TrEMBL record:
<dbReference type="GO" id="GO:0140359">
    <property type="term" value="F:ABC-type transporter activity"/>
</dbReference>
<dbReference type="InterPro" id="IPR013525">
    <property type="entry name" value="ABC2_TM"/>
</dbReference>
<feature type="transmembrane region" description="Helical">
    <location>
        <begin position="248"/>
        <end position="268"/>
    </location>
</feature>
<dbReference type="Pfam" id="PF12698">
    <property type="entry name" value="ABC2_membrane_3"/>
</dbReference>
<dbReference type="InterPro" id="IPR052902">
    <property type="entry name" value="ABC-2_transporter"/>
</dbReference>
<feature type="domain" description="ABC-2 type transporter transmembrane">
    <location>
        <begin position="68"/>
        <end position="261"/>
    </location>
</feature>
<feature type="transmembrane region" description="Helical">
    <location>
        <begin position="21"/>
        <end position="42"/>
    </location>
</feature>
<keyword id="KW-1133">Transmembrane helix</keyword>
<feature type="transmembrane region" description="Helical">
    <location>
        <begin position="62"/>
        <end position="84"/>
    </location>
</feature>
<keyword id="KW-0472">Membrane</keyword>
<keyword id="KW-0812">Transmembrane</keyword>
<protein>
    <recommendedName>
        <fullName>ABC-2 type transporter transmembrane domain-containing protein</fullName>
    </recommendedName>
</protein>
<feature type="transmembrane region" description="Helical">
    <location>
        <begin position="105"/>
        <end position="132"/>
    </location>
</feature>
<feature type="transmembrane region" description="Helical">
    <location>
        <begin position="164"/>
        <end position="185"/>
    </location>
</feature>
<feature type="transmembrane region" description="Helical">
    <location>
        <begin position="138"/>
        <end position="157"/>
    </location>
</feature>
<dbReference type="GO" id="GO:0016020">
    <property type="term" value="C:membrane"/>
</dbReference>
Length: 283
């Protein structure tokens, strides 16, 4: 019981340390801070003059909700860079020499990665409401659930994957195309029309798509999980929670995969990281 009680005391100093290290590289930090906001707003600019659809919502409304999720998807870029850098500078090795448990280090890093995403999502929705006259969310709690659960999931998954990638800046170059693909397939760039394609149905099992489905459903109080709906009837809070069970399950599954990868492949020292990268490349 005492270990459970003291665990948060280890996590929050780790969050503070992670944030301090993150902002030491101003150029990287600014890219990570500004790019997700720009990527979330730009699709709205392209469709701002389009009329309302059959559902009564404008394309800019839908892209505002999904624009909040771009910062969550972009966490993968920030985490992979941070993990590689802190491994190379032996920051993780020094932390492992302290009484801080590995789970607290991972938890602190995940929370630290999620904090900027929450602020960026708030900026996107503020611009959407103030500039594009998008309505405020219907179910704030579900929107927050989607953002937080998605942020933690992608952070855990990326930390796990980082143990399989080469050290240094090469990891960032490798992960960036995957971030862009997740962004595109999530539906954050365009508003889908017509029946769902095979690619759409496969994309349902990506964490990025799951976040968008949860946030859109909560934002408008309508079912944006099921495909092929001719109309989107309004849902109460309980009904909306029932509608998001599939994407929420997808996030939980990916978070579990990320944790398993972390326990199996994540490395704390640069030399070990390079050895594992070489072994993975030769398999």
């Amino acid at each position: 019981m005492s270990a459970i009680v003291s665990w948060p005391r280890y996590v929050w100093p780790q969050v503070a340390l992670s944030q301090r290290v993150y902002w030491q590289d101003v150029a990287f930090a600014l890219v990570g801070a500004v790019m997700p906001v720009a990527m979330g707003i730009f699709p709205m600019v392209q469709v701002r003059d389009l009329p309302a659809m059959a559902s009564g919502l404008r394309p800019v409304d839908l892209l505002a909700a999904s624009g909040m999720c771009v910062s969550v998807i972009w966490i993968a870029y920030a985490v992979i860079n941070s993990a590689a850098r802190r491994r190379e500078t032996r920051t993780y090795k020094r932390l492992r020499a302290t009484p801080i448990p590995a789970s607290a280090i991972l938890g602190g890093e995940a929370v630290s990665a999620a904090l900027p995403a929450l602020v960026q999502s708030a900026v996107v929705v503020a611009v959407a409401v103030g500039v594009f006259h998008v309505p405020l969310p219907v179910h704030w709690g579900i929107v927050a659930l989607g953002i937080v659960a998605g942020a933690v999931t992608i952070a855990l998954l990326t930390f796990g994957v980082s143990g399989l990638l080469p050290a240094g800046e090469l990891s960032t170059w490798i992960i960036t195309p995957f971030v862009i693909v997740m962004w595109y397939l999530s539906g954050s760039m365009t508003v889908a029309t017509g029946s769902a394609s095979t690619v759409d149905r496969i994309a349902d099992y990506l964490p990025s798509t799951a976040v968008v489905q949860i946030v859109r459903t909560g934002y408008f109080g309508q079912d944006y999980v099921a495909h092929g709906l001719s109309s989107h009837p309004h849902l109460g809070l309980g009904e909306a929670l029932g509608a998001i069970h599939q994407p929420l399950g997808v996030l939980i599954a990916w978070a579990a995969v990320g944790y398993v990868l972390f326990r199996t492949f994540f490395t704390w020292e640069p030399r070990a990281a390079r050895r594992r990268s070489r072994r993975a490349a030769t398999r």
